Amino acid sequence: MRERPRIALVLGAGSARGLAHIGILQVLQENSIPFDFIVGSSMGAMVGGIYACGADMKMLGRMINNMDSKLFFDVQLPRLGFISGKKIKELLNLLTKRKEFKDTCIPLLVVATDLLSGQEVVLEEGSITEAVRASISIPGIFHPVKRDGMILVDGAVVDRLPVEVARDRGADIIIAVDVTFGDGRVVSVNNTMDVILTAIDIMQKQQFDLIYHKADILIQPAVSGFGSRDYEKSQELIALGRQAAEEKLEEIREKISRYT
Question: Active-site residues: which are they?
Answer without folding.
Answer: 42, 154
